[in-house]
Amino acid sequence: MVDPNFYLGLATEITGKVRRLASFTGHAPSIGLHHEEIVREAMRPLMSRRFSLRTGFTFLDGSTTSSQGDILVVDESDPAPYFFQMGDLVVVHPRALACVVEVKTQLSKATFLQAMCNQYSFKRVGAAASPGRNLPTLVFAFDSAAFAPDTLHQWYAAVDVPNEVASYPHVVYSLKRGALLLRPQRGNAPFGHYAVLGEESEELNPKALSLFLQTFRKILEKKAGLESNPFEYSDLQGLLSSEQCVQFRQGLVSSAKTNSPI
């Protein structure tokens, strides 16, 4: 395990960068672009030069195109990954995508629904290009309403994408609220998102940040054909997976008997 102070320091650094720009302007588009760059800076140290961070779309044909994604993680080892490039704005072939990250300044019901639809648009194109593929997606939010069961029920019940495990982002992370983690079906426990417990705070959640970053590392390694356990570098001590599961179009669907370790 990496020293927990590493993740606390990173979370504090991210918060400081947010506050510095906010002290000069409340211009929402500028703040949004700045937040995306902050997330890129947190992700870059985990990457080799094989991968790049772009923004834009994925395209298969005229009827199979994604929405615009905030951060596209592109495998530059692909011999012909791009249909179009202009600076960091790209149209990329889905086979060259390693991951897509949606970035939100504030996660509310409206922005949550937008993020779920956007990330699913990439999954849909990825599956059309390579049947059976589950293109990994992540969501990073700088703030959010509390991940309370009633709130999550309302959000998830309103998501209009297929309720299949391949439709979900691997992790939904809020810097101030923690994380929602995708779990496959385990026995009687259904697939879906489960809140990560044990770090309830309205300030910073560095343990959940470690989970987000090492999930990203795992995605890169899997794209490269490697099998490893990067979560040994996370700080998961004391974290539990909630007993309550939420699913798209259903909301809160069931409760397990007890909270379980991450």
Commentary on this structure:
The chain is α+β, with helices and mostly antiparallel strands and 262 residues long. It has one domain. It contains five helices and 13 strands. Strands 1, 2, 3, 4, 5, 6, 7, 8, 9, 10, 11, 12 and 13 form a 13-stranded mixed sheet that branches. Strand 6, helix 3 (109-129) and strand 7 (137-144) form a beta-alpha-beta unit. Helix 3 (109-129) crosses helix 4 (149-157). The longest helix is centred in the middle third of the chain and has 21 residues, at 109-129. The protein is globular and about 50 Å long. The two termini are 14 Å apart. The mean pLDDT is 92.
Number of helices: 5
Mind summarizing the main beta sheet? 13 strands, mixed
The topology string of helices and strands comes to HHEEEEEEHEHEEEHEEE
Kindly report the average pLDDT value.
92
Q: Tally of extended strands?
A: 13
Beta-strand level of the residues, as a percent range? 25-35%
* Unreliable residue stretches: none
Helix content: 25-40%
Radius of gyration: 18 Å
Domain count, please report it: 1
Shape: globular
